[in-house]
Write a structure and sequence with these properties.
alpha/beta; Rossmann fold; 4-stranded parallel sheet; two-stranded antiparallel ribbon; 10 helices; 8 strands
Amino acid sequence: MRYTSTRDHSVNVSFEQALTSGYAPGGGLFVPAEFNLAKFSTEDLRRWKALSYAELAYEIMRRFISVDEISDGDLRQIFADSYSDFEREEIVPVVPLKLDDENSKVYVSELFHGPTYCFKDLGMKACVNLLAYFGFKRKRRTTLVVSTTGDTGPAAMHAVCGLPEKVKPYLNILVHFPKGQISKLQRRQLTCIDSPNARVVAFEGGGDDMDIPIKRILLASHSGDNVLCGINSYNIGRPLTQMVHFVWTYLRVAEREHLEVGDSVQMVDIVLPTGELSV
């Protein structure tokens, strides 16, 4: 799988290059160059029904990462490690809601059983583990530059500080948060971690005021031995790894409702609560 830019289709890079860059050159976002290579078939979905969450993550992400970049064994281990500190064995419980209308069926995917109690844990730990893998492989130091309004920062901080000792020298993190604008719990999650490879900075202003400065810094630092990398949602690793819980939810609902997996008639609608819409 190769990756290109939303702003320049002449860009053609590996998964490692896309992941460790954050933004594409020129400020675009990295996307798969050929989406057809990553399509899931009905047979795939049926084969994945009995998999654990980590096994499903491996199967999905294998479509987006060449075996030449990460071997099967290493990729399996990365995802096994990425959910090892979740409080629930199924990682994402899919729970039915009791409704007055017996003809309606609603399920809720609980995305808050990670170490920082936020859905960001589902993608962040895996993304950080992938970055750590490449940093250790290249013996190259990478510094993650993060801006947070409360969720991303703690998830990223926990993921980095929980890395094995052998890879910690190759991955540092610097988190920026708006002073007085995150919850007390989130502030403590950021500021009460004692780790030599983690730093936290409070800034004056709104939650998104660091976005443009960080983008400028990252776009000016695409080369060198000490790599700066953004780990907010524009990084291709984030949407790819967070995609897993959508497939997981579909499979669990199909199982509970005795639906034929892949049936285009028996549809499952997924409603996604979301926040700010950036232009």
